[in-house]
Structure formats: structure tokens, C-alpha cells
Protein: Retrotransposable element Tf2
Amino acid sequence: MLPLVEFTYNNSFHASIGMTPFKALYGRKCRTPLYWFKEGESMIVGPEIIL
Structure:
């Protein structure tokens, strides 16, 4: 459970730095398995992929 808490913390917006800690460290948004397409690229996910 702790890795999930750490992941959530690192990808939550922090007002003190004006971004997520992940973006502050790596200079980009975190790409999770649900969002493995490039920024600016759109992707339609059908129900057969989600199920």
C-alpha cells in the first residue's frame, strides 16, 4: 500500500512549487500505463481495452 501512497503524493499538485513533485524532478508529467501516449496526442480508449 505504501508504494501507491507515494505514487499519489508524487503526482499530486503542490501549491508551494506550483507543480507535481514528479514534474519538478523530471521536467515532464508522469506517464502511467493508462496514459502511455505522448502529450498532445489524443487516444480513444474503447470498452474492450478497459475490460
Notes: The helical segments are 2-10, 21-26, 47-50. Residues 5 and 16 are 20 Å apart (CA to CA). The two ends are 24 Å apart (CA to CA).
